[in-house]
Amino acid sequence: MLEMTALLQLPTELLHYIFSLVPPADIQALRLTCCLLKDVAQDLLLPTLTTFLHRPGIERLLRVASLSKEIRAGVKTLNFHIDALQECDDWDEWNYRRRIAFNHSRLHIESRLKLAAEDSWAGPPLTEEAQQALAEYQTRNLELDHYERLLPNGDWPPLAGHYAISQRHCEDQKLLIEESYVRTSMAALFRACPNLTALHFLTRAGSGVKHTARDAYFQQGLYAPVGLDDNYSSAAVEQTLMAAHDTTRTIREMRLEEVFYYYLTDAVDGLEPSEELLQAFNKLENLVWKLNDEPASHTLNFCPETEIYVTRDRIQSLAEGDFLVLMKAATNLKTLALTWDLPEDWPCHELARLGDMVGDIRWSKLRSIELSHFKSTFEELTAFFLRHKDTLESVAVRDAYLEEGELDHVFETLAGKLPRLKEVYLDGDFMALSGRYYTFDYDTGDELDKYLIEGGVLPQKPKSILFGGEPDRLSGQYLSNIALLSATQGV
């Protein structure tokens, strides 16, 4: 609960601003260790800003520039949701998609309820999480029933206004890019926030936003995402990085989720990446790039066939070499994560090739690497790690396929050869063309981890590691970005 006596010691302006961000009824805790405005701003209030690729979202973002110097100094990270907005030809199509959003939301809540119930070993009464999911599900059902009664003739006045808002944003989104509105606005934000050095670009229908909140944006006409990256989405990334260049801002950390490099590098138009883009990558120290997301049935506009073809195109286009142009520019990387999230039945021979993602690059400062869902050869895989043996401290690998050579030979070649290595995280299936494989769960493989760090004798039959021909997949929990967190401490 809020400590009102502590709050009353803060400036009135700050109190109003806190309540404009989060309604008082929704604030469950606000821990204040110091009443000085500077300390509150830097440590508690605004470490992260979030906006969407439409004009009202960016305008709200720019209001930060009018706040006090202490508050602006506290801003360190920008989360930028860059999905293309959904264009609808008429009211009927918009209303149809709005109803689909409700149905997807209901399916999502049903899945939450099922999982929560399965986790309740004692049976009834349900866990607190299951009870919350059930209450939410019942509320959404009532809303859905209510709207279904009202909407055949479109006679609920607020919806007409929401539809108009949605259409206006769709028409306006292209202008944000074509008129360099994003570049100009982000430059103003960088000038206002001297400590803003981390950028997170998100797509896939609001990745990182709770599903119910995402659905609420859709209902209001404020955020109706396509869920796939397109040229305008990537242009928003490029213009933001150009704005950093315009203001001589060094971006040290960047996270890209579902951002297709093919648009980002201008390869789709047969052009070279802009100099500003390459310079921005050159200054990066931490790069996390989720190259795709596994299709989810509750995502708006979900189409399994289309999703599969899009993922295949992304993997195959890596071989054209444009992705390596960006990787070669990022010479100062200390942390790198290149990951894919693919269905369990994805064919091994259709995985992305490690060489297409990292080439023969040697990052002289690289401390932490995270890789997932890739194929490689013995020579290519071992050469990559040995190139970085003098700097690597943390390695996280999930789901790898060896087209040539044996896995045991890979482990024996690397074991004890990386003198600075302190952490190893292996997860998923490690398979070879010969049929031999290792399958790791998140709490298995400790013996092999220790062997890779210290060397010695390869464990012949490590406990809890499976051997065989066809892998028996263990779901596991992907220890994503643990390496990133450990490697960046104290940087």
UniProtKB/TrEMBL annotation:
It comes from the Eukaryota. Residues 4-55 form the F-box domain. Pfam families: F-box. InterPro entries: F-box-like_dom_sf (IPR036047), F-box_dom (IPR001810). PROSITE patterns: FBOX. Signal peptide: none annotated. This is F-box domain-containing protein. It comes from Pseudocercospora fuligena. The lineage of its organism: Eukaryota, Fungi, Dikarya, Ascomycota, Pezizomycotina.
